[in-house]
Task: structure prediction
Amino acid sequence: MDSRKKLYISLAMNIFIFLATTGVVISYFFGNDGQYHIEPSFRFNLFTTDSNILCGVSALIMAVFQIRQIKNNKSVPRWAFILKYTGTCALAVTFFTVIFFLGPSMGFMEMVFGGTSIYMHFLGPIIALVSFCFFETSKPLSMPLSLTGVIPTALYGAWYCTEVVFITEINGGWMDFYGFNQGGYWYIAYPVMVLASFGLCMLVRAVHNAVSKKIYSLS
Result:
């Protein structure tokens, strides 16, 4: 597939990610409280919502620069590319956490296929991964830059631990809705999640770079 076609496909995916994410988030304020009847404002305390918003914003920025590239042949800035990678890695964490932890413990029909969850937990991450790994492959990603993908999980984990463990629900913090402090083992769960996030970042980087190198070898 030539680079022009890949650019148009990537652009279409990025526009879809932004519009779909925006539509789902707006729906929270118009009666979409989901299986667990979550208040709209509390949605922004969930990593699912935050990771999708991050990726949606990064997709919009990519789309803007891709349109500029189509019109003026100016390449997408490196920082926009890194931001899309970071958002994609955050959605990878969302996807695999649902598949391997929340789905088995809370039920796949509710967590994956219930209402708009099918997009936020499944379709959104898949589309982001496909677009970044197979259609946004102009340059390989270096190891130091790939560490940016861990930032969302590390920051959210610190926020979650502060609300759940240190402030506590009784003092106005959060209940342990993800169950990461079961048995009081937050000090194990937090580094495990960060390390798992790092592993996913390396996996996304490996696939992306493998596709990029294959393209260079054929050019």
User: Anything to note?
Assistant: The helical segments are 3-27, 47-72, 78-106, 108-111, 117-135, 143-146, 151-167, 186-218. The first helix runs from residue 3 to 27. The mean pLDDT is 90.
